[in-house]
Amino acid sequence: MLDLTQILAGPFCTRLLADFGAEVLKVETATRPDRTSATRPDANAKGRQDRPPAFLNTNRNKRSITINLKTSAGKELATRLATVADVVIENFSADVMERLGLGYDQLAPLNPRLIYVSMAGYGHTGPRREWTSMNMNLQAYTGLTMVNGAEGDLPTSISNSWNDYIGGLHATFGILQALSERRVTGRGANLDLAQFECSVSTLAPLLVASAASGRAPLRMGNRSSRAAPQGCYRCAGKDEWCVITIQDGDAWRGLIGVIGGGLADPRFDTLIGRIRHHDEIDALIEKWTSQRSKEEVESRLAAVGVSVSRMRRIKEVFEEEGPTAFRSMEDPPGYTIAATGVPFAFERNGLAPLAPAPALGQHTEQALSEWLGMTADDVRTLGEQGALV
Questions:
Q1: Is 332 or 263 the better-scoring residue by pLDDT?
Q2: Cα(44)–Cα(16) distance, rounded to whole angstroms?
Q3: pTM check: above 0.70
Q4: Residue 273: C-alpha distances to residues 105, 230, 265, 267, 279 (Å)
Q5: Contact 327, 356 (CB under 8 A)
Q6: Main-chain phi, psi angles of 230, to 5 degrees
Q7: What are 235-261's pLDDT values in tens digits?
Q8: CA of residue 81 relative to chain centroid, distance
Q9: Residue 53 contacts residue 59 (beta carbons within 8 Å)
Q10: What percent of the chain has pLDDT over 70?
Q11: Among 215-224, 258-267, 286-295, which is the least confidently predicted range?
Q12: In Å, what is the CA distance from 368 to each residue of 104, 362, 378, 379?
């Protein structure tokens, strides 16, 4: 796989495939660093200093080659690599690859089995094809920022690059499907993925409900139209909380058995009744939770079948979950770092062993030898032509 992606959406997709054992050759250049790697780690941080932790995690199990696509020799080299690749993937703005001579229509005649994946924010067709996109802009344009939070709140986005991860996931299963079809047809495919449309697809229930009713969906905050009560309730201590969701009558009776305190009111017996009196119920619940630690609240309510979880901070998640949610690898040798895992396991094989993210251009000569049969002299000539920068 020839990986011409940057920042997060594309690199997340290729990292997933690399975790499954795909050979991913990441094209980079020192003249225009990946903006993820442009932010250096703290000077006092332990471990590698050439790449930040986010880059190390997103680009593990890959190899790196430096190609200067602004030179004719660099463009020619990238074209040659694409002719022997199974997949070419890029997430530049629309038209960038065509201007470089590396668009699908330019490469497909040279490699009819090529699976070509584009991941522009708004795709390569339609009135928004030339728009520049970033995560929060896409969330605003999909309407996502106006369904998060509660009524009266300012528009609220989901942090941590929601669209990049959703786009990366969609691109991953698109590639797997294209590979499966190619085994039957022998032909490649051109996958034009719009990250905007990926985000819209996650809003399906809201879109369908709005289309049916003709009304904008309400901003529910921490509440739900299908479960009540539901909320984030203050616990004892400074800024400590527990989330409780009552999904059915059994859970409601379990909550009453533990808390009591006025919850056993006939007005609250049905879901409709609990939704109607949600504020009153919340006050009764929080009167009880605020006098207890979040651990006690979680333990006592979970024991009677209530859906409950204490609020954890990111540091707690890492320290408590350890190897079940995270994997570890040595990078550099002798220094262990944490990496997010793939959230399922295979009975046999299935996942590649973790390998550190590459240094810039670390595999240039090796990849050119293996992919194109180039000699050291050939590589030296390309370097003299300014193609390998």
A1: 263
A2: 30
A3: yes
A4: 60, 14, 10, 6, 12
A5: no
A6: -145, 130
A7: 999 999 999 999 999 999 999 999 998
A8: 27
A9: no
A10: 96
A11: 215-224
A12: 22, 12, 9, 8
Between the alpha carbon of residue 301 and those of residues 13, 24, 245, 264, 373, the distances in Å are 39, 47, 11, 16, 64
The contacts of residue 362 (CB under 8 Å, 6+ apart) are 63, 64
Residue 218 CA to residue 233 CA, distance in Å, equals 21
Q: What is the rounded distance in angstroms from the CA atom of residue 105 to the CA atom of residue 195?
A: 21
Full set of structural domains in the chain with CATH: 2-202+320-384 (3.40.50.10540), 230-234+241-310 (3.30.1540.10)
Burial of 347 (0-12, 13-18, 19+ CB in 10 A): exposed
The residue among 62, 74, 71 whose CA lies nearest residue 37 is 62
Confidence of residue 40 (pLDDT cuts 50, 70, 90): low
Using pLDDT thresholds of 50, 70 and 90, give the confidence band for residue 39.
Answer: low
How far is the C-alpha of 232 from the C-alpha of 241, rounded, in Å? 6
Determine the pLDDT at residue 54.
87
Is residue 14 within 8 A of residue 24, CB to CB? The reply is yes
